[in-house]
Write a structure and sequence with these properties.
2 helices, two-stranded parallel ribbon, two-stranded antiparallel ribbon, 4 strands
């Protein structure tokens, strides 16, 4: 996708990740994301970031 954040791509004028988080929220507890960028935007949507280290570090 050309290096863009897929979850932040608009779908029906809202980020795709927001649609997924809202759809899953009634079925799940806390939501975690694993991202390379946009952590603050995901946090504003109610998802926590899973901090991880690269396997190639």
């Amino acid at each position: 996708m050309g290096g863009v954040d897929k979850g932040m791509q608009p779908f029906r004028s809202k980020p795709l990740a927001l649609h997924a988080l809202r759809w899953l929220a009634p079925q799940a507890g806390a939501m975690l994301t694993s991202t390379n960028r946009s952590a603050a935007e995901y946090a504003r949507m109610g998802a926590s970031e899973w901090a991880h280290r690269s396997m190639h570090a």
